What we know:
Elements: E1 29-33, E2 36-40, E3 47-51, H1 59-72, E4 76-80, H2 84-99, E5 106-110, H3 114-120, H4 122-127, E6 130-133, H5 142-158, E7 161-167, H6 173-184, H7 192-214, E8 221-226, H8 230-243, E9 247-250, E10 256-257, H9 258-274, E11 280-281, E12 285-286, H10 295-306, E13 315-318, H11 329-351, E14 359-363, H12 369-375, E15 378-381, E16 391-395, E17 398-403, H13 408-430
Helix pairs in contact: 1-2, 3-5, 6-7, 7-8, 8-9, 9-10, 11-13
Amino acid sequence: MSQPENTVIIESDQPIPVAFPAPRRSRQARVVWGQRVVTVGGDAPVRVQSMTNTDTVDVIGTAIQVKELAIAGSEMVRITVNTPEAAAAVPHIREQLDRMGIDVPLVGDFHYNGHRLLTEHPDCAQALSKYRINPGNVGKGEKRDRQFAQMIEAACRYDKAVRIGVNWGSLDQELLASMMDINSQRAQPWDAKQVMYEALIQSALQSAQAARDIGLDANQIIISCKVSGVQDLIAVYQALAQRCDYALHLGLTEAGMGTKGTVASATALSILQQQGIGDTIRVSLTPQPGEARTQEVVVALEILQSLGLRSFNPSVTACPGCGRTTSTTFQELAKQIDDFLRAQMPVWRAKYPGVEEMKVAVMGCIVNGPGESKHADIGISLPGTGEAPAAPVFIDGEKAMTLRGDGIAQEFQTVVENYIERRYGAATAAH
C-alpha cells in the first residue's frame, strides 16, 4: 500500500515488549480469622476489600450484607464500630458469619472513640481481624498520643493487623498547620496542594513509626492515604511507594455514583496497579437507588481481571453492535451468558478449579465474529444483516458446530456447560 508523501515509517527489529504490571515491593502483612489467613503485600495477590453500609447494631442485617459481599468476592469486609452498642454487636456478627460458613475477616472502622471501644469491649477487639485507625481522628494535643497508643496496644495484645488510614477529608489539622508554617519559610514555597500531599504521607509514616515504637510489628501495618481526585491519588501513592515498604491499601475516597465513580476508580487504580503500587483495593461507590452494595466488589474484581492481575470469573467478549447486526440477540445472549457464569461461580470455583480463567466470545456478525470466537476458549458468531441464518460455534480455536433456529441462546448455554464439565471437571478428576 502506497504511503502519503512525507510519511516517515520507523521500523525496528526489536519486538514490542509485552505489558505487565511492575513487580511489587511491599512487605507482607497477615490478616487472620480462625483458620483463614489472608496475606497482603509481598508476593500475595492484590486483595479486594469492601465495606457494609448497615447499622452495625443490626447483627442479622450486617451479617447478611457481609455474607453477600464475601460471596461476591470481597476478601475482607469493613464494618463501622462507632458506639458501645456497635462494639458489643461485633462478636455476635462474627458468630453469625461463622454459623453460615463465611470465614471472611472483619475489619473494624474506628474514629474518635476507638481507644475506648477496644479497651472496654475486649470481645470486639478479639472478633475483629484488623483495625482501621485514622490518625486525624484519634484526638488532639496530649490526648492524641495516649489514645493512639491504646489502640495499638490492643492490636499487639490480640495480634491484629492495623490499617493506618489517612484521609484528606479528616487530616490532622495540627500537623497540616505546622507544615504550612514550615512551607512559608521556604525560599520557594510549595503549592498548597503539594503541602497537603506531604502532610498526608507524613501523617501515615509518622503514625506507622509510632505504632512500631509501641510494639506493633511492621508486618502488621498497612497504610492508606486516600483522596477523592484521580491525579491526586496517583501523585500521593507514587511518592508513598518510594518512601516506604509497608503494604498499601488503595482506593479513591468518596469516588461517587454510577459511571463517575466506576470510571474514576478504574482510572486511578489501574495506573497505580500497573506500576506495582497497591496491595489491597476498594472501590468506594455510592450505590444507585436500589442497587446492591456488591456492585463495588464487582467493579474491583473487573479492574484486577482486566489488568490480568487476577482471574475471578470467566470473561465474556461481546460485540457492541453496529449497522451490520440484525437484532439485539447477541446483546441478550451475552448478558444471559455473563449472568449465568457469575451466578454459577460460587459453586464452580470449588468444583472446577481454573474455570475463572475461561474466555467466552459472543459476537454479532461475520466481520470479527469468527476471529474473536477462535481466540476465545468457546465462542459463537451470530448472523448479521444479510448473512445466512446460522451461528457457528468455535471451541478451542476450531469450528465445532453450527446452531440454527429460535433456540440458539439455550443451546449455546448448554454447549458452554458441557465444555466446562469436560475441560475443568476432567482436570479435577485427574487430581
